[in-house]
Write a structure and sequence with these properties.
- The structure is a single chain.
- A hairpin with a 4-residue loop joins β2 and β3.
- The N terminus is likely disordered.
- The chain is globular, with a radius of gyration of 15 Å.
- The chain has 159 residues and is mainly alpha-helical.
- The chain has one domain.
- Helices cover 43% and strands 6% of the residues.
- The protein has a three-stranded mixed beta sheet with strand order 1-3-2, with helices on one face.
Amino acid sequence: MQRKASGLRRSPYSILTDAEIESLKRDIVALQADESVFNEGDFTGYSDDADIVFVRGDVLPDNEYSVHPRDMLSAKAVLAHEYYGHRANRGTLLQEGSWNDEFRASYMAAKNAPGLTDQERAFLILDAMERAKEAGVTIKWNSFMRRAVYGSDYKQGKE
């Protein structure tokens, strides 16, 4: 079975409550993102053509059934993936939805999005690595990736 990008997140048909919508709005502010770019859609994702981050129920994790990094991304990390990953790289030659487009989106969000917790950055890096692994591509960890996942006290070769 091939994993879909939405993994085991909540269904896009899950209706967001008023409280969840308010929380998402606070996340957008915390990310210092342009609020006008976000709108309701059929599923959560970025549209190059419309320059809109569509948000739906699948923006929320379903931590009850999975330990896969993609499933465990917070809503704020998902919004960062779409805004600082996809939107910041719109118009490039990578095929939309390709493993390297998705890898770059998670990596760049982890690296560049303000307002993320250390855990959110770690899960974004782990998601990027899973996307490469799913495509059969080996990626060499760099110092940023190691720091994001293992912490600032991590020293290469020491555990």
